[in-house]
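Example 3.2
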Amino acid sequence: MEWELKKKSINSEKESLNTAAVDFNNDLQQKLIEGKKESKNFWGIVLKTLVSFSLLFYLGSKLNWQKFFSYCQSIDLLFLGFAFLFCALQTILSSLRWKLLLFALNIPIRGWTAFELAMIGKFFNAALPGGTSGDFVRIYYAMELFPRNKTAVSVSILFDRLIEGVVLLVLGSSFGLLFYRQLNDQPFLQKAVFFLLGLTLLTLLFLATLPMLLKFGIKLSQRYLGKWKRVEQVLTDIVHVLDVFKYCYGRILAACILSIGVHLSAILMFVFVSASLHMHLPLWLLAVVMVEITLIVSLPISISGLGVREGAVVLLFGSYGINPELALGFSLLSFSVGILWSLIGGLFFLTWKKNKKNSVSLPT
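Structure, written as tokens:
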């Protein structure tokens, strides 16, 4: 009897030791994975910083700095102030668009709260690599705000950006095609217009086939990912949200109209930035440049698009006959206006936690 009790005690100790060893291995593996992710993120930021400063250094080595500073000294601050106002108008209209999409999903939110989250997104778009990083931060806070509708609010933000992107491509392609004859002496700009047109068609094709692709993904998850039911549930929720949007024609049309307002505000911001530098550029050229810059900055290959944006502007304006000093001044001034508005978003981020409890509007 005593021997059996000792045997059971030894077996129990072995099981506890094995459990502890398994837990230790799991913890160790988790820490290694987290360490690899942190190391990857660190080196990713280092690489993006090198890309930004390498491109800026290269552009700077080609400039006549005396001419560049003479342009900077002649900046008209009144026009620059108007550019800042239109930069602010973009955020106001985009927050109204997102509120409209949430309303279609029966998720009530105050207009001020939608604006706060839009400003927080702006701040992190400037603070993090790429031009869309702030959207993921906005998704995080939106899910925290609506814990029962995490998938719906996440999809609404992504769909909001998708509408903005599609309207952006359509506007840029339309302006480019309407004034294509004026580009006979600018082959680079002609190629840019064709690139925009091709990208627009591919995006519209993707949008048309998106529900079918998601349903196909659900079938694949049922067949091969049976253990991870969460994947199937998320895909099903996304399809449901898109089905709701599909039958809200009026609200989607209104969201597209607001997107047109967002992009026209961006174009007018560029108009006033160019006016502050005493540049006389046609509206259609600024529209095409705005689209190209927005697309390039959204790529997570540099810090806030620095260097990549400036190189693109110098190339696009250079093909139209604008000297690189003036083109670089236009790019840096546009970036400064945007970054100043984004830094104001940092104040919204700092006060967000205090105001979160009063953010959701009560259903009427």
